[in-house]
Amino acid sequence: NILSKLFVFSIVRNPWSRLVSAYKQAQTWCDPDISEKKKEKLLRIERNRPHPEKRLTFEAICNYIDKNPNFEDFVNLVINIEPNEVEIANQHWRKQCEILRIGHFKYDYLGRFEEWDYAWEVIRYNTKLKFEKKTPKYNNHSKYDYKKFYKNKKIIDAVGDYYSEDIKELKYEW
């Protein structure tokens, strides 16, 4: 088996933080001032994902966000609306255990996004590849505290319940 000879890894992220990041990304996608070039690029990416007919379209997400722009409404879209309308959640907020097939696939290492520099060093060491010392950061998440988006315990618990398997299997806590 070829996989037994490879160092199999992935990077996981705190589900509460990840959902805020997805919300901020969706706001960017749906910005009415987005350039046509960027919008076309996003649509091309969407069309190239597996089973686009089983997902909420970029347009449907933006229509919802335009009418319901706050974070709590976005959480409602992810937790209550999308699961009832489509078979496959958007990759930006799909449960990590589903994406990574945790429990069905063996990983040598699951690094944490929150400990990026350390995870990168573990990956470099175990793969023996000569990566650059530091990886480029495209999004700066230090500009905001994800916990400030969660205005009450109800929304914290709703996201916790939705991502309960990720929280348990990946050992995250609020």
Rg is 17 Å
CA-based shape: globular
| Order of secondary-structure elements | EHHHHHEHHH
Low-confidence parts lasting 5 or more residues at pLDDT below 50?
A: none
Widest sheet: strand ordering: 1-2
Number of strands: 2
Mean pLDDT: 86
What percentage of the residues does DSSP assign to strands (E)?
A: under 5%
Class by alpha and beta content: mainly alpha
Q: Helix share of residues? A: 40-55%
> Given the structure, what is the number of helices?
8
Characteristic terms for this protein:
174 residues; two-stranded parallel sheet; mainly alpha; 8 helices
Q: Would you kindly provide a written description of the structure presented here, covering whatever features stand out?
A:
This protein is mainly alpha-helical. The protein is 49% helix and 5% strand. The protein has eight helices and two strands. It has helices at residues 15-29, 36-48, 58-67, 71-85, 96-100, 116-127, 153-162, 164-169; strands spanning 9-12, 109-112. The N and C termini lie far apart (39 Å). The model has no long low-confidence stretch (mean pLDDT 86).
Topology at a glance:
Elements: E1 9-12, H1 15-29, H2 36-48, H3 58-67, H4 71-85, H5 96-100, E2 109-112, H6 116-127, H7 153-162, H8 164-169
Parallel strand pairs: 1-2
Concise description?
This protein has 174 residues and is mainly α. It is 49% helix and 5% strand.
